[in-house]
Amino acid sequence: MDVVKGYEKEFNQLVETYEKNTHDKSLLNPSIANIIVSGNKVVGLNNTPGFRISSKTRGDGFVIIDVNIEDNTKMLMPVHLCTGFLEKKGEQLLKFNYNIGENVKVKFKSHCILTNVEKLHHYMTSDMYIGKNSHVEYEDEHFHDEKGGVFVETLTYAKLDENSYFKTKFYETKTRVGRINVLLDLDLGNYAKADLESKIYGQKDDIIDIKEIMRLNGKHSSGIAKSTVFATDATKAHVINEAYGNAAYAKGHIECNEIVKGHDMSVSTVPVLKVQNEKAELTHEASVGRIKQDQIEILMSKGLAEDEATALIVNGLLS
Amino acid sequence: MLALEDIRYSKNSNDIVKGVSMKFERGGVFGIIGNNGVGKSTIGYIIMGLSEYKPTSGRIILSGEDITNLDVTNRAKKGISLLWQEPARFEGLSIKDYLTLNKKIDIKSVEEALDMVNLEPKLYLNRLVDKKLSGGERKKVELASCMLLKPKYIVLDEPDSGIDIMSLDMIVKIIHYFQDNNTGVILITHRKEIAKECEYSYLLCNGKIFLEGKSDKIIKYYEKTCDSCGHINYAEEK
Question: Which fold has domain B2-233?
């Protein structure tokens, strides 16, 4: 692991916060590729055979991070992308460029640790190219400050080449959200597959915007996009799922479940399905409302109190 | 004893249950029989105390105590349980966790219960109680859950629905398992292969008890008259 000179303290502080939040002690394992960003500075990174990560800070304050994975690289351990912010106020601007070769297998575990800030704008945009026959998983988990002063924007644009597979999981379920804006925009080639999942738990006056777009441009491409939002208190949540069936035998399914609790929240969902090829097939499911009474009462019939039953159902949905 | 005293229940100005009185004893198997739509499941839900099924009038008495106003949780704590006809699904909850919601239940008992409902524990313990289970599998998990609760009274609402015909013997075995453990079984069914396990039955027609007595007599009448009648208003007209 290369730790940038003069930033050892910040590096250690982030590693410690990461381990506390995730209970994962593997971050410093030398066989694991990773990058650790504090504020607008890369403070540590580790490369492994076939995997190259590099960074530079642009004049406008953006940290540009290039991730290149050679053809036929099979990453046995997940790649850790750890971003944190240790100041009280400010802006974190990140731009990731992923170039993933052919026949690659890789799993990224991204953690945004923004737990001790008063006011922060975290902006992260990612451009990803996934080569032919590659299998890519991307898990993104966020931990935000409990006072709600974090505003996260995470925008991902991915192009999936022939017969590639991309699975994403975006979770913000363990801490306050603050304000969040998630965009996932995928362009799928022939026989490419995508599986998108996002789960967010809104509390107090959190604001949640999710937009997931699947452009099924290749024949036999397919994708599922599923969003789950649990909105409590005065949370405002708006989810848009879009699927475009532009090629023969393209198949897409979008699903949005918004569960509400409280009287001041406001939630909405908009599914958009557009077919431009007669052999394409798109479906959607959406539900907005409180937890189903039969779910609560079946657990109550096992002796659980109503609040315990509700918590169990919500934890299961967001797990 | 668990007793329903002159229970009435209306919904949207429709009288669904019209003055029903029933008695159930621990260790006995009691049938509530009748065609679709006569109010059998409604009576089951009223016994369990579901929020949408509060009786309009009448009382429910458990061992001398009026439990009419108790909610589901408190009725469960007093030993009443219900096997839902179509049990709800839960995302992110494993079968093992679902069957051990009551922390006192040990894993060995869970495995035994799964075995009894013909689900191989190794294959099922870590599966989720979600949409990926078939209707029959979900029903069997629910049967196992009800067994593990060791209730004083269990309402089995159409226990065979959604389960393959090969599993009918298993259902019968479970009914007797409850009986052997001194549970009072309240069996809601319109299937004679299951109803024949009852000692005493109530034949329902249009929200009323039309006939009650020893089960063989009730089943004979049901087969001869109601089966072909398919007429839920017969009692009213009579």
Answer: Rossmann fold (3.40.50)
